[in-house]
Amino acid sequence: SLRLCSTRVTLEGINKPVIDRIIRVDHAGEYGANRIYAGQMAVLGRSSVGPVIQQMWNQEKDHLKKFNELMVAYRVRPTVLLPFWNVAGFVLGAGSALLGKKGAMACTVAIEESISDHYNSQIRTLVDEDPEKYKELLQIIKQFRDDEREHHDVGLEHDAEAAPAYSVLKTAIQ
């Protein structure tokens, strides 16, 4: 069987459709998150919140890099919607940042909450499948979920809930 250098797992015996879906969706999500933070930095990069956004973006860049590696290792094709995520993510990031720091942080809270929930669902799926077989992938997803939760909390600490029409904005973004 083929061993994958970057993940130390074999393709033999995995539930390929489930793994393909998880990796494809997570790659698209991390790609979109990168574009959101790029849009926020374009507007707020030189503001007092710029370093906070940059720090979260740096973690998202690491997430995307890892999913790029996993796509190759597991032979997963990217979603055909990447061009859409490219534009939509940047517009969402820049648009929320145009509302100011609070608007950008409201966007961060909304996105990161959804992503954390999504990762939790994937963790449950992989644990139900075979936690030992998917141990390394579970470890990656759990770490990234924890990072997303941290971003969510950073957004709350930076007055996300004080954004204009926070509940409406959060719901619309999610």
TrEMBL record:
UniProt-recorded name of the protein: Ubiquinone biosynthesis protein COQ7
SUPFAM superfamilies listed in its UniProt record: Ferritin-like (SSF47240)
UniProt keyword Hydrolase present: no
One family name in Pfam for this protein: COQ7
InterPro entries listed in its UniProt record: Ferritin-like_SF (IPR009078), Ubq_synth_Coq7 (IPR011566)
Record-level GO cellular component terms: mitochondrial inner membrane; nucleus
Biochemical pathway: Cofactor biosynthesis; ubiquinone biosynthesis
Gene Ontology MF term list: 3-demethoxyubiquinol 3-hydroxylase activity; metal ion binding
Protein origin, superkingdom: Eukaryota
CDD domains: DMQH
Keywords assigned by UniProt, alphabetized: Iron, Membrane, Metal-binding, Monooxygenase, Oxidoreductase, Ubiquinone, Ubiquinone biosynthesis
GO terms of biological process kind: determination of adult lifespan; regulation of gene expression; regulation of reactive oxygen species metabolic process; ubiquinone biosynthetic process
